[in-house]
Specification:
The protein has 255 residues and is an alpha+beta fold. It has one domain: Bira Bifunctional Protein, Domain 2 (BirA Bifunctional Protein, domain 2, 2-Layer Sandwich). It is 35% helix and 20% strand. The protein is built from eight helices and nine strands. A six-stranded antiparallel beta sheet has the order 1-5-9-8-7-6, with helices on both faces. Strand 7 and strand 8 form a beta hairpin. Helix 1 packs across helix 7 and helix 3 crosses helix 6. The chain is globular. The two termini are 18 Å apart.
Length: 255
């Protein structure tokens, strides 16, 4: 999360180009949305599994980052692919996501929900249980969870593509009032969300998924993508953000 924000600041100043970042997590980590209560976390269970916890700079609900590809699209506010409101830019970026997943033989669609949809109002600590407008689904099940932050210095949209594994694992890191509620939440999750492996009947590698994202973003959004490492300034700023923000209770536990 600190690297995403460091790139966002640099891109907003014009010191770094608009960026498509693809990454994975080790060890697994539970990320909370910007305004999600820290009380949603079952710390004893989280620590028992050896998982970590972080708060994202974007909204939404909890995601357990493991066995997935995470993407981040970062750029200044005047970047043509990011201009407009949240839904407008979501829709634009979702076209690249659709093409990437279709190239992996996934029968995906971008689900558009009306503002009065019950799904928009249902309180739930789990991101993948509730699709939002223009998020990617297969047969009504959510496949990619995305969230966006728009700031004066730029735009960050990142999201998670579960490649394989049991999506119900996240419920082991969240607090529920009783065991029955926990079991119901786990059952709802596998009814409403899915993984690439579940759809295809076989696993694909992180590298396969990453290559599909690179080709789709390049072709669909007319981007000339050039591989690159973090600059020294981005790396230093990311480390500062870790120490002062993302690894600090004043940020993680603030809600």
């Amino acid at each position: 999360m600190a690297v995403d924000e460091a790139i966002l600041e640099a891109a907003g100043r014009g010191d770094s180009p608009p960026t498509l970042r693809l990454y994975a997590w080790a060890p697994p980590c539970l990320s909370l949305g910007y305004a999600q209560p820290y009380g949603d976390v079952d710390l004893e269970q989280l620590e028992g599994h050896g998982w970590q916890v972080v708060r994202r700079p974007t909204g939404g609900r909890a995601i357990l980052h493991t066995d997935e590809l995470t993407y981040a699209v970062i750029g200044p506010n005047d970047e043509p692919r990011l201009v407009g409101g949240v839904l407008e830019s979501y829709q634009r970026l979702s076209q690249a996501l659709l093409v990437a997943l279709q190239s992996l033989n996934l029968p995906v669609q971008a689900r558009q929900l009306g503002s009065k949809s019950p799904a928009n109002k249902a309180p739930n600590p789990v991101c993948f249980e509730i699709p939002s407008s223009y998020e990617i689904t297969v047969a009504g099940k959510k496949l990619i969870g995305s969230a966006q932050a728009r700031r004066k210095d730029g735009v960050l949209q990142h999201g998670s593509l579960p490649l394989h594994g049991d999506l119900r694992r996240i419920t082991q890191a969240l607090a529920y009032p009783d065991q029955a509620t926990h079991q119901q939440a786990a059952a709802r999750l596998i009814e409403r969300a899915t993984t690439v492996e579940e759809i295809l009947g076989e696993q694909i590698s992180w590298e396969q998924a990453a290559e599909a994202f690179i080709e789709a973003f390049s072709g669909t959004l007319k981007l000339d993508l050039t591989p690159g490492a973090l600059t020294d300034a981005e790396r230093a700023r990311a480390q500062q953000l870790v120490e002062e923000k993302y690894a600090h209770p004043s940020w993680t536990e603030r809600v």
